[in-house]
Amino acid sequence: xxxxEKVENKEHKKTNSHDREKSRGRSNYRSRRKSYKKKFxxxxxxxxxxxxxxVEIDYKNLGLLRxxxxxxxxxxxxxxxxxxxxxxxxxxxxxxKARQMxxxxxxxxxx
Length: 111
Hints:
mainly alpha
């Protein structure tokens, strides 16, 4: 009889300690619960310049450079444009050259 009570007490202590950890936020509760959010699939962006090797990045080609700037004048990041690191560096350098020669505005406030 006493052995059964000891076993039951041990099991009871285990559940209580688990509940205490859960209430303190230490348990792995979030990882165990099911996620009901829908998975978001997005289309992989490819580098425009790797696809079209005949297109050259040049500071005089303002139409192309404006495509990679935001309206406020900032250079668009890679995650928005989808360009590779090599071409993103070249684009940013050419945009800076065009700004220096006053072909492109630094900000939208300049006239």
